[in-house]
Amino acid sequence: MKPNTDLITIGNNEELIKRLLEELVLLPRVKAIDWSRITKQTPNMKVGYPGQHLASLITGIEGARTGARGDDLRDGSEVKSCSRVDQLDSCKDCNLRVLRIEDACPHCGSINLKRMDDSKWLFAIKSEEEMKLLTQRIERIFLTIADYPHFSNSEFETLRFQAFEIWNGHVRHRHFAALMENYYRKIFLEHIQRNANKTPAPKNFWPYSYQFYLCNPVKVFEATVTNANTRPETIINYYVQPDNDRSTLTPEAMPTSLLTLEEVRTLAEPVNEYTLTPLILAGNNFSDLQHLASQKQLNKQRLSEILPFLNESARGLLDLRDTDKVAEAKAQYRRR
């Protein structure tokens, strides 16, 4: 998990990152919002190529001049970008579309709106060779995401940009390869078996999901943008220098609200008491977790009062869910 320092050629990174976000993402977005009020078109700015620029500045490594048809960075890293900013919303009453900048449905006037927050990273794997490339030969998967840190409060004036890394050769990230191989063998090949002329949808890798946290992604960058819709101001909250060893970083903590009852029961086995006790909130103990796990239904509110988050060690007690475990396709694919 140590970046190739010979390929780190971009300096003054934090200042350049701020300039990039302002000139390539934020100011064009403000202009798009102004036009959106007139045209009623979405101001959503696609983040694919800006995400690759951002990846170069965060890692200090130049692109490989491939135009997204080869290595994304000179060290072979794969860059994926996801934006949950300015997604198209809908009205819960009339089911028609509503722009993110609109506070009420323009069709029926309702303020009962469904705000969308479901964008994800996509991985297309269409052959055994592509699967091995993604999970074995590519060393670093670099994930960027733009979203709203206060989305649950319907506050859309503040944006957040984050970057995470997954390293295929390190044991802490082993589940990523398993997820991708499982997709290829159980989903892609079986869809091709049913209809060889139709390409299956790519693998969805959901931010902040059970899968995401079990892969132990390490955050290397976070920036907050205030007054994003009018006069954006960017603050870099967290930045890992390009030459730092990523194995020393602590992966993101997993909210226990993502767990199923069976997973809580696994955690509550007596052998796990030593691992979990330091994570249990004051006023509670391991017996409280065991009592909760013995119930017929999982009380997630109570779970968050006892054990709100799992660190990397605690996540090591869990496994991928059955639908995500590697298995051979039901029938061997043969080209017609």
Key phrases:
single chain; 336 residues; alpha+beta; five-stranded mixed sheet; three-stranded antiparallel sheet; 12 strands; globular; disordered C terminus
What would your notes on this structure say?
There is one protein chain. The longest helix has 27 residues, at 13-39. Residues 328-336 have low confidence and may be disordered. The protein has helices spanning 13-39, 48-59, 128-137, 174-194, 210-214, 261-267, 273-276, 286-293, 300-306, 312-315; strands at 78-83, 89-91, 97-98, 113-114, 121-123, 140-147, 159-167, 203-205, 218-226, 233-239, 254-255, 309-310. Strands 1-6-7-9-10 form a five-stranded mixed beta sheet, covered by helices on one side. The chain has a three-stranded antiparallel beta sheet with strand order 3-2-4, with no helix packed on it. It is α+β, with helices and mostly antiparallel strands. It has a domain at 5-84 and 119-252.
Q: Kindly report how far apart the N and C termini lie.
A: 42 Å
Report Rg.
Answer: 22 Å
Mean pLDDT: 90
- What is the subunit organization of this protein? single chain
Look at the helices and sheets and give the structural class. alpha+beta
Question: What is the string of SSEs from the N terminus onward?
Answer: HHEEEEEHEEHEHEEEHHHHEH
Uncertain spans, ≥5 residues at pLDDT below 50?
Answer: 328-336
**Number of E-state strands:** 12
Major beta sheet summary: 5 strands, mixed
Number of helices: 10
